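S.,

As promised, the zinc ion run. Input:
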Amino acid sequence: MPCPYIGRMSDRENEIISTVSYIQGKVGFREPPFSLQAFFEAFPHYQLEAARLPRGFHGEILVKGEWRLVRYRVESKGPAVRFTIAHEIGHGFLHADEEFVCRISTTFRLFGKKPADPVEWEADYFAAELLMPMPMVNRLARKRLDAESLSAEAKRLARVFGVTVPLMRARLQDLVRMRTFEVKMA
Ligand SMILES: [Zn+2]
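Predicted complex:
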């Protein structure tokens, strides 16, 4: 399926998608969920650690030469941690040699209001594309999504993609919006 939103993407968004596609290819990602374990095996200069982070922060990335240390809140569990880790990996690829400590979106939307800090938006965008590539979400989600089926699909696909339900719901809302554009452009 052609990418339904290619027409509206900025050069920077295209760059981010290319980076994500390169990683997904190297990791051999064909069906969800994206394996973070396979990522850390394929990119051994990235390391992962649970850490005590300042209150209100979910993750950070530390840099030393070629090494990238991704740290996530030791108290966090489950699928939310996967998005945090993907976000920090995004900083590692997109914002070379910079260190970040982050508060991470729990309902990232492509069509939502962009935050004041574009660098954080880019890392969220990267994470969403890495874990829930839109063409794959489009393929696996029901063709018709109304308010009721969207909630049920968000729950079902959150498990499939290994993300939280609010994140999957936001992703499906973006999908509905993209499909609308696709119909108009066809
Ligand atoms: Zn960040």
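The beta strands are 46-51, 59-64, 67-73, 100-102. Residues 6-132 form a domain with the Arc Repressor Mutant, subunit A fold (CATH 1.10.10.2910).

- D.
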